[in-house]
Write a structure and sequence with these properties.
By secondary structure, this protein is of the alpha/beta class. It folds into four domains: 6-48, no CATH class; 58-142 and 377-556, 3-Layer(aba) Sandwich (Rossmann fold), CATH 3.40.50.740; 151-368 and 572-596, Dimethylsulfoxide Reductase, domain 2 (3-Layer(aba) Sandwich), CATH 3.40.228; 611-748, Beta Barrel (Barwin-like endoglucanases), CATH 2.40.40. It is 30% helix and 17% strand. Bound molecules: ligand MGD (2 copies) and molybdenum atom.
């Protein structure tokens, strides 16, 4: 007998209403309150109940046998064991590592998006647990906008606050003449917001701008990075050349006297330095439009015309986070701030600059009204950390030194790595190198919903309940809505919620009271909800109690500042609202950064050509590889769901190729192609389209890594761009990932392509 009902759930891509039949989710649709619900929901049923679920605790065979090096991680089979056996092994191993090496022997940076839900947040749970047993080495920063996190505090102020203070699109619609989009404004990315989104407003606010007659220029390798209705002018500049383009624009503004000297004097420091650099007084090279034309491939006259247009009216400069995810990614951020300062419109309604419009659903659209309740993570007694993208370096060079924010630092010696809620074999660059790095630790533990490539590289894999298999509530970090997340279905197989796993482990380690404080997950949830209600009351909102809330519907709260203008207060009073920089002003020149004396980030914005190009690799690998976020899923999550699968080409991730590049290589749409460079190779499915700039190929991130260790360079069969990207950092200042600066070549794959195996479980060996 089947039992039908629709129930609410929340995810990073929005609120869903699930249809449940016989204890399984069979469909998830958007909430009727949501003007543009995300089709990513349609992936949930197939993935949640898919083949790839981790159903029982599993131990890598060679590790269990006591011969851990017999078969490399990532290539070994697994032995399924009972929970008791798995937790006994972990308790013993954690104790051994801490006693022998101290808690700095544990690395649990565990970067990743995990899933929505305030309480069952995978990283918070893991960190709380490890903090109660003496701590761990963490990581700092993210893969999203790390150069902005590391640079902006020196030159304007903390980046996260700035994103929250972004000028609202409604203000842009009313006041702005021209929006210049470096890196476009990809609506596919506005499906998502960290922790959740209750109404997708971005398409609506874009359309309102179009209706109001705001002009848009889209500077991006993808024409489709701007909504068609905007009728944006498309400028296809060479990837990695934005800094040069901005300098060409700035040079025109400067030499034609279109810059705002009053603004520069009153609100900034160091303009004289960039003035000299732009004119070429310091290095003999004027950064004029002709210079920029050579580097960007954009005509000099078009650069001059755009500069004049930007100076003639109210102009918003927008920089996508993707632009800084490349070599020397600090520079386009800094140069955008500089160019905006020269135009003198920072702090005016609809003018100035914004970094991160389009990085999620909410930026420029809404912000949360107050801070939601949180599971306390406790204190980490270990102070050591690594910049997030240095994972391979750390594992390959324990005790090695590196430079970061002007400090000389030493890598810890990670003996035990624990990952929960992230997929480094999705998110990190140069996966062949990561595969080698992951052979180094003594033990790797991964908590996972699915048999991802990261789980396959673990020694101990713990099956965890997915978001729909536990009770929680959703509340996005930048969203102003609260969503009940009642448990919809039972966990698959023997999967458990992570809180209960750690509670059992803590009991084995004698730290149960410290971890649980005597509370069940239900009791914690009520406590965190009560804390949320208390903050709500302070903000003037009455929220229902937990019992009423959890059986109810979404609660929408208002935007705390719907007419927000970024840095308006600073413009109004630069003394009372001095910026939290050393000078209290916008730092076009930073004494602090100059004092670090770095080879790859100077005291003012500087042009550095991307490395692969500078090293002449374009001879062998002439195409720029771009690898932005996928439309059909969140990173690697739900890649085996119906919507994600529906847009694959020949069962592989689609790669966008310009018709001329395809013709030169005898490639047609639908072909299986092989992409390669000196670091790795992968198969993908060709999609020939003129929405991509000639000379560039675009391969979405997130196809589960599917290495074929019998093929050259352990060829990936599925189309994961990170087998091709380099593992170099943007600069020593921020040590950020630079995935978008890779060169590749591509050819038709001849013969029968090997089947993709990434969505199937690994090979299991019988229990010993
Ligand atoms: N080449 C290239 N690489 C990139 C980027 C790029 O532009 N180009 N972008 C980068 C960016 S911006 C980011 S943010 C990263 C994203 O990288 P990640 O955040 O690592 O990617 P996800 O696929 O979201 O990984 C989350 C994992 O958590 C698991 N999970 C979900 N819920 C739970 C849970 O409750 N508990 C546990 N234990 N696990 C759970 C999922 O199954 C999934 O495997 O990728 C980066 N990598
Ligand atoms: N559907 C969906 N939405 C998502 C995510 C997802 O996985 N799926 N992930 C979320 C996350 S974690 C993040 S951080 C954001 C990321 O948001 P963004 O960083 O804004 O997105 P990307 O797609 O990485 O990059 C945006 C665009 O930059 C362009 N670009 C790349 N390199 C260059 C360059 O050198 N110059 C110029 N001018 N343009 C360039 C590319 O064409 C790309 O389409 O998206 C979020 N939204
Ligand atoms: Mo991100």
């Amino acid at each position: 007998m089947s039992n039908h009902h629709k129930k609410i759930t929340a995810s990073h891509w929005g609120v869903g209403l699930a249809t449940i039949e016989d204890g399984r989710i069979v469909a998830v649709e958007g909430h009727p309150d949501d003007p543009a619900a995300s089709p990513i929901n349609a992936n949930i049923p197939g993935s949640l109940h898919g083949n790839a679920r981790v159903c029982r605790p599993a131990i890598r065979k060679s590790w269990l046998n006591g011969t851990p090096g017999a078969v490399p991680r990532g290539q070994d089979s697994f032995v399924e064991v009972s929970w008791d056996r798995a937790l006994d092994l972990i308790a013993k191993e954690v104790t051994r590592v801490c006693e022998t090496h101290g808690n700095t022997g544990i690395f649990a940076g565990s970067y990743g998006w995990s899933s929505a839900g305030r309480f069952h947040h995978a990283q918070s749970q893991l960190k709380r647990f490890l903090n109660t047993i003496g701590g761990f080495v963490r990581s700092e920063g993210n893969y999203s906008y790390n150069t902005a996190l590391g640079l902006m505090p020196h030159i304007v102020g903390p980046f996260r606050t700035h994103v929250a203070q972004a000028t609202r699109w409604s203000v842009v619609a009313k006041n702005t003449d021209l929006v210049v989009l470096f890196g476009g404004l990809a609506l596919r990315n506005t499906q998502v917001s960290d922790g959740g989104v209750t109404r997708h407003r971005a398409t609506g606010t874009m359309l309102a701008c179009a209706e109001a007659g705001v002009d848009f220029v889209n500077i991006s390798p993808l024409r489709s990075d701007a909504l068609e209705a905007l009728e944006a002018e498309w400028i296809a500049a060479r990837p990695g050349s934005d800094t040069a383009l901005m300098m060409g624009l700035a040079h025109t503004v400067l030499t034609e006297g279109l810059h705002d000297l009053d603004f520069l004097q009153k609100y900034t420091v160091g303009f004289d330095k960039i003035d000299a650099y732009l004119r070429g007084t310091t290095d003999g090279t004027p950064k004029d439009a002709d210079w920029a034309a050579d580097l960007t491939g954009v005509e000099a006259d078009a650069i001059r015309a755009l500069a004049r247009r930007m100076a003639a009216g109210r102009t918003m400069i927008s920089v996508a986070a993707g632009v800084q995810r490349g070599d020397y990614g600090e520079q386009p951020m800094w140069m955008a701030v500089t160019l905006a300062a020269m135009l003198g419109q920072i702090g005016l309604p609809g003018g100035g600059y914004t970094v991160g419009y389009g990085v999620n659903a909410n930026i420029g659209n809404i912000e949360r009204l107050f801070r939601w309740g949180t599971l306390p993570q406790g204190q980490n007694p270990v102070r050591d950390y690594i910049p997030v993208a240095m994972i391979s370096e750390m594992l390959l060079n324990p005790g090695g030194t590196y430079s970061y924010q002007g400090q000389k630092r030493t890598f810890p010696d990670a003996r035990l790595v624990w990952w929960a809620g992230g997929n480094p074999f999705h998110h990190h660059q140069d996966l062949n190198r990561l595969h080698a790095a992951f052979q180094r630790p003594e033990t790797i533990i991964v908590n996972e919903v699915n048999w991802t490539a990261t789980a396959r590289h673990a020694d101990i894999v713990l099956p965890v309940a997915a978001a729909q298999e536990r009770t929680d509530f959703g509340a996005g970090k930048s969203d102003s809505g609260l969503v009940p997340m009642p448990q919809l279905v039972a966990p698959v197989g023997e999967a458990r919620v992570e809180y209960d796993i750690y509670a059992d482990l803590a009991a084995r380690l004698g730290t149960a009271q410290a971890f649980t404080e005597g509370k069940s997950s239900e009791e914690w949830l009520r406590e965190i909800w009560d804390a949320t209600c208390a903050r709500g009351r302070e903000a003037g909102c009455d929220l229902p109690d937990w019992d009423e809330f959890i059986v109810g519907d979404v609660i929408h709260l208002p935007d705390p500042s719907p007419d927000q203008v970024f840095l308006a207060d600073y413009r109004a009073d630069p003394v009372a609202h001095a910026l939290p920089t050393p000078s209290g002003r916008v730092e076009i020149f930073s004494e602090t950064i100059a004092g670090f004396d770095l080879p790859d980030c100077k005291g003012h914005p500087t042009w550095f050509p991307p490395r692969d190009q500078a090293e002449g690799k374009a001879r062998d690998f002439p195409l720029f590889l771009l690898s932005g976020q996928p439309k059909t899923r969140l990173h690697s999550q739900l890649d085996n769901g119906a919507y994600s699968m529906s847009l694959k080409v020949a069962g592989r991730e689609p790669v966008l190729i310009h018709p001329e590049d395809a013709r030169q290589r005898g490639i047609s749409g639908g072909d299986v192609v092989e992409m390669y460079n000196e670091r790795g190779r992968c198969l993908a499915g060709a999609r020939v389209t003129d929405e991509i700039q000639k000379g560039c190929v675009f391969l979405w991130t997130g196809a589960w890594y599917d290495p074929d260790f019998s093929a050259p360079q352990a060829r990936d069969r599925h189309g994961n761009p990170n087998v091709l990207t380099h593992d170099l950092r943007t600069s020593e200042l921020t040590q950020s990932p630079a995935a978008h600066s890779a060169l590749v070549e591509i050819k038709r794959f001849e013969g029968a392509p090997p089947p993709v195996e990434a969505h199937d479980p690994p090979t299991f060996a019988p229990e010993l």
